[in-house]
Amino acid sequence: MSELDRTFKRAVLTTVLNEGMPGLLGKADGTLFYTDDGGIRHKDRVWARVGGGSSPTEAVVRCVLVPQTLNLPVIVAEREGVLTAIRTDANRASEWAGGTLANVQPHVWTHGRYGSDALYITGLAFLPLAAYPSNPPDLTVVVEQCFYRYLNVRKAFERTTSGSLSAYRPAGADVTHYVILALDRSDNTLDIIDGDDVSGGDRALPSVTTVLNTSGVEAKHWPICAIRLYNGQTQIMPRDIFMDLRMWAGENVGSGSGSGTVDGPDSATDNAIARWDGTGGRLLQDSYPTIDDSGNVDLAGGELRDFAEQVVAANTADAYEIDWEAATLFELTLTDSPTFTFANEAAGRAVTLILIQDGTGSRTVTWPGSVDWPSATAPTLSTGAADVDVVTLICRNDGSTVLGFTAGQDMG
Fold this sequence. Notes:
It is a single chain. With 412 residues, this protein is mostly beta strands. It folds into four domains: 3-111, CATH 2.40.50; 131-250, no CATH class; 262-298, no CATH class; 311-408, Jelly Rolls (Sandwich). Helices cover 8% and strands 36% of the residues. The protein is built from four helices and 27 strands. The strands form eight sheets. Strands 1, 2, 3, 4, 5 and 6 form a six-stranded antiparallel sheet that branches.
């Protein structure tokens, strides 16, 4: 090579290196990706702070030649009239990257051969639940294996190819459609959760909010990724797997508020009633009260506070059935002289009857023969209109004997 050739190449290289302005990817508030007024996020557009000094200009730049990484130092220049991040800024990139390879995506670098990840394995290595297009490409996605625990059961998910996504392609050419691929932890399989159409052509993408509000994501799901589909599509490309959702499972909001992962103690009392530990809605603690398989509650010496008895209010007509399971307090207006019968009485149960005379008054009650009254005499009710009498009934043994006594009369 002649000296003239070398001089020319140095001049060209100097021109290229001096082209453009310094910039940092992302806005000052941390926003990286650009979303237009219609809510469409553009994969090849990002925000950047362009220019030196303390007051750079925030602008949207085309970014396909360098990693789309927040705060990455770049050189920005016009290409075909569009501001473009043409390369990383070598003068600042080494310091920014801490000695790593600045042109390698941070996640890939961390797990790569030259990264700092102590768990990197030389040989067969994988990122848990990483999703990528099938090979040869078609309308399926391959998901890497992982190990996890669900409902205190340890599980291993094997590397799996999803079902075909062909049925989710939109009919129109002016929209795209998206789905969420998720691990169903209840049966250790892949689920395809249907999303919605997105207007804006075959490059349109839904907003993050739209994806996170997708109905159909349940507590059993571990969302993996969101996938874009369009009319006429024959294969899934890397750009179509547009959102990594694997961290979603830490909260797993799903389609209703309050759902998610709940942690309990290492051991617990059999049949104990679980109670919240703190106000975060995620931690459970053991408790003293228990409920056995028959529904019996043992308070273990505790106290019942701030509770009310179940009340049934009714008119009696000429016959009325007192259901001992329905309530413990009955407020009965005697609109006739009724005959009382019992249902579901059982040893240990008690009910209180508030008997109210209607506007006519002088109503009487015929009691079941199983009621045992003091001195074998049923109470004589007050007769005045709107008079109130109170009677308490306590069931003994198998229900064949009921103790009855008057708690109050003419209380109206």
